[in-house]
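Course assignment 3, question 2. Fill in each field.
Student: A.L.
Task: Predict the tertiary structure for the chain below.
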Amino acid sequence: MSKQKKSLSPVGLTMPVALKRLESLSSKQKRKDAEAIMMLLWENENTRDPLNGSMTPLDSILHECTEGCGKTRIFSFGADKCVYKPSLNERDVKVAAATIQWIATNCGRSFFEKFYRKFEEARKSK
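Answer field:
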């Protein structure tokens, strides 16, 4: 019997304003809405493989180093050899989800495009 995969950040587990925007969409609108598409992608990215307990973006973003980091290797973060111990609280998960959802808004996409232009300029100037 296989274990069911469960996301650490299911669609809907977000801040109230972000949730309100998602809930205002019809089923048909959700298929084409950038925020809804982003949230489905985020949900999928934050689903651990039940066989190996793979690390998710949320795990990486919300990881806090402890005294055990570097002593016992569970997951490795580059040269630091941090020990990964899942300790996600609901508010942190909601804030991260709302931030990712915001990137899919017009304002968020504009912000990301500015970042990307700056990044490309910096990369080309080397």
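Instructor remarks: Residues 76-80 have pLDDT under 50 and may be disordered. Residues 11 and 41 are 9 Å apart (CA to CA).
Grade: pending
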